[in-house]
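Inverse folding, one chain.
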């Protein structure tokens, strides 16, 4: 590889490229755990390593009677890399804190840098870039049994772009500051979502919206009448979501037209997660094809999407505000309002367990559950 270019193109002449093993004090696969139901010692598995965080809910416990060499236990400043598994291999996380009694299992590679020449957080950011992940997928994976493998020797050979240590520190500080702001925004969004859910429940489940005197309607003696959904406020009515919204189904893009790189992203069911939509890890179509697709399939920020088929039928997510050109794939629906406020009502209503239960009950299909765009889910409205 020419030292004047790297994965992203030209690089400053004073920057260098070195193999990772020249910049570290320790690189090794972890230890196979002896699992127990619970202990004080946890094993870090590939499923727990996510982009930007560790999913503690899927960590497993190790039998303390089976000794594990201290070198396998994770310390502050360590970098871990998923080393097996289609779709997860190459996923990287940096421990900027000292975790309590946790070691890497045998599917995870543990990396300790020589901090005088390589900032470990800078390493994590470099390995996490889409260009580097594609590079790993295309050049460094092996496997003979259908299980992709990122073995130790390949990890050691990884070419690392190396600015001066002061530049690495500056880059890592800037990016970590942005990460902190993103996390803060996520926390604020979660708080606002909890507030919205609380208000929705107060109005449309508990019927404690303010009456004319500003008092809670139901508990202040507000008149209630029978409906097919039970007792509801006087002058309210029961109906279906289809009275308020409709669902625009996605476009049936052909597999041969989908690409791993491009400018026009395609949103699939797998992009819907945790009530939001991942617009980064998408497949793409050409701009020429996009120009031929009806604009009704084009997405924009704040669109509300719903999974129409599969094991996760009914899950919803909001498209974040963005400047990326996005189109909706088949098996995903985009919720559009028929009346003002219909989309907001649908979002809060579909988050509720009883709404999801009704969706599951209505899902039909022999091979996999699916719902139509008819929106026959029962609800109440004022």
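Residues assigned per position:
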């Amino acid at each position: 590889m020419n030292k004047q270019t790297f994965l992203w193109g030209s690089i400053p002449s004073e920057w260098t490229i070195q193999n990772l093993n020249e910049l570290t004090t320790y690189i090794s696969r972890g230890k196979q755990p002896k699992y127990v139901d619970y202990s004080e010692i946890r094993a870090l598995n590939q499923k727990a390593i996510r982009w930007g965080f560790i999913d503690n809910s899927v960590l497993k416990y190790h039998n303390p009677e089976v000794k594990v060499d201290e070198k396998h236990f994770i310390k502050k400043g360590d970098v871990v890399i998923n080393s097996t598994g289609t779709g997860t291999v190459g996923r990287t996380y940096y421990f900027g804190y000292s975790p309590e009694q946790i070691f890497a299992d045998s599917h995870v590679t543990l990396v300790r840098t020589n901090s005088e020449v390589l900032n470990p957080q800078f390493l994590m950011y470099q390995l996490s870039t889409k260009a580097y992940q594609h590079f790993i997928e295309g050049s460094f994976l092996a496997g003979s049994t259908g299980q992709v493998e990122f073995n130790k020797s390949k990890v050691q050979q990884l070419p690392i772009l190396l600015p001066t240590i002061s530049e690495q520190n500056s880059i890592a500080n800037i990016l970590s500051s942005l990460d902190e702001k993103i996390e803060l925004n996520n926390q604020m969004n979660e708080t606002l979502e909890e507030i919205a859910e609380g208000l929705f429940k107060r109005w449309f489940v508990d019927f404690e919206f303010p009456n004319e005197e500003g008092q809670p309607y139901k508990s202040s003696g507000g008149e209630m009448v029978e409906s097919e959904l039970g007792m509801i406020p006087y002058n309210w009515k029961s109906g279906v979501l289809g009275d308020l919204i409709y669902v625009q189904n996605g476009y049936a893009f052909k597999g041969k037209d989908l690409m791993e790189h491009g400018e026009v992203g395609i949103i699939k069911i797998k992009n819907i997660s945790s009530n939001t939509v991942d617009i980064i890890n998408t497949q793409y179509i050409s701009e020429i094809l996009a120009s031929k697709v009806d604009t009704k399939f084009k997405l924009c920020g704040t669109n509300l999407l719903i999974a129409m088929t599969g094991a996760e039928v009914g899950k919803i997510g909001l498209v974040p505000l963005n400047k990326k050109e996005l189109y909706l794939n088949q098996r995903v629906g985009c919720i559009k309002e028929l009346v003002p406020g219909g989309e907001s009502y649908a979002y809060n209503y579909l988050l509720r367990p009883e709404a999801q239960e009704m969706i599951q009950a209505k899902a039909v299909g022999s091979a996999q559950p699916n719902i139509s765009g008819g929106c026959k889910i029962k609800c109440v409205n004022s």
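The CA atoms of residues 209 and 220 lie 10 Å apart. The chain has a mean pLDDT of 90.
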